[in-house]
Design a protein that fits this description.
This protein is an alpha/beta fold. The chain is 41% helix and 18% strand. The structure holds NADPH dihydro-nicotinamide-adenine-dinucleotide phosphate. InterPro entries: Epimerase_deHydtase, NAD(P)-bd_dom_sf, NAD(P)_dehydrat-like.
């Protein structure tokens, strides 16, 4: 039972590595910088890591970089992809690593004779943005695909990167006859294993760190433990196929603030929206397919509490 996890030091990947080790897998983990303890110590200290975790240096932008990490694996979990909003050069910082990086990883997969399935960490970013209205009565499902041109016009560069990467992946695996499943999570919350701050946990940190306003945005939310588990289920269940959206609840930031207030009544939280436009409406995302993987859907309130407690423990915030 040998599998590869790309971008293993990341927020979602760290939980994935932890659960894979727990389930008895041998994990070949790719990281950009194996000599940086901030990127590796939380992995090498996991139960089972001493015996069954091997680190590999690999970069999405270097051709053949993933060959040795993927060689001999039956499963490949490709999670590595930059997730930032604040970029100067979207092409170089987001699009190239996402798209070329995914093709790079899949090219290594195509060379493998042991590979059974690839699980690609995509996103609801590759699902939601197709120009169709999203309102409380609309149910989004796996048949939705974001339109890269609409996303480019809106300058949603991270969304563009995930949309183009997933699209390129489907084309590549079809041509090469590779079995691939994608996991399409919404905004991921829950405890951090890594010592560094990732973008989705930062969205919660911003609210509890003295901000005056909350964004006028509505997102789906999902717990990191459900996301990691879904990756493994999608790998292990032979009939798993296609895409799996992962959303526990869709909620506007005003609702997130309301729940945080319920959890931490003494905490100073933003009282106003960042603009005076009507709140961006909520919508629904079908749980039907993800439920077939046996996902628990840990409630949003628990995920928010876990995130805040973890941010406190890791000293990103003190109260
Ligand atoms: P992190 O930022 O914690 O992880 C991203 C990982 O990608 C890191 O390990 C990072 O490596 C790696 N990476 C970035 N650029 C490169 C590169 N050029 N070469 C090699 N590795 C690279 O974010 P998440 O865990 O949140 O994201 C993991 C995946 O999940 C991504 O594909 C993201 O798009 C997707 N996702 C995340 C969601 C969320 O809300 N968190 C929601 C939906 C999808 P390094 O540690 O060296 O920087």
């Amino acid at each position: 039972k040998v599998v590869c996890v790309t971008g293993a030091s990341g927020y979602i990947a760290s939980w994935l590595v932890k659960y894979l080790l727990q389930r008895g897998y041998t994990v070949k983990a790719s990281v950009r910088n194996p000599s940086d303890p901030k990127k590796t110590e939380h992995l090498t200290s996991l139960d089972g890591a001493k015996e069954r975790l091997e680190l590999f240096k690999a970069d999405l932008l270097e051709e053949c970089s993933f060959d040795s990490a993927i060689d001999g694996c039956e499963g490949v979990f490709h999670t590595a992809s930059p997730f930032y909003h604040d970029v100067k050069d979207p092409e170089a910082e987001l699009l190239d690593p996402a798209v070329k990086g995914t093709l790079n990883v899949l090219s290594s997969c195509a060379k493998s004779t042991s590979l059974r399935r690839v699980v690609l960490t995509s996103s609801v970013a590759a699902v939601l943005y197709n120009g169709k209205p999203r309102t409380p009565d609309v149910v989004v499902d796996e048949a939705w695909f974001s339109d890269p041109n609409i996303c480019k016009e809106l300058k949603l560069w991270y969304v563009v990167s995930k949309t183009l990467a997933e699209d390129a992946a489907w084309k590549f695996v079809k041509e090469k006859g590779i079995d691939m499943v994608t996991i399409n999570p919404a905004m991921v919350i829950g405890p951090l294993l890594q010592p560094t701050l990732n973008t989705s946990a930062a969205a919660v940190l911003n609210l509890i760190n003295g901000a005056q306003t909350f964004p006028n945005s509505t997102f789906g939310w999902i717990n990191v433990k459900d996301v990691a588990n879904a990756h493994i289920q999608a790998y292990e269940i032979p009939s798993a196929n296609g895409r799996y959206c992962l959303v526990e609840t869709v909620a506007h930031f005003s609702e997130i603030v309301r729940i945080l207030h319920e959890l931490y009544p003494d905490l100073q939280l933003p009282e106003r929206c960042a603009d005076d436009k009507p709140f961006v409406p909520t919508y629904q995302v079908s749980k039907e397919k993800a439920s077939s993987l046996g996902i628990e859907f840990i409630p949003l309130k628990i995920g928010l509490k876990e995130t805040v407690e973890s941010l406190k423990e890791k000293k990103f915030v003190s109260f």
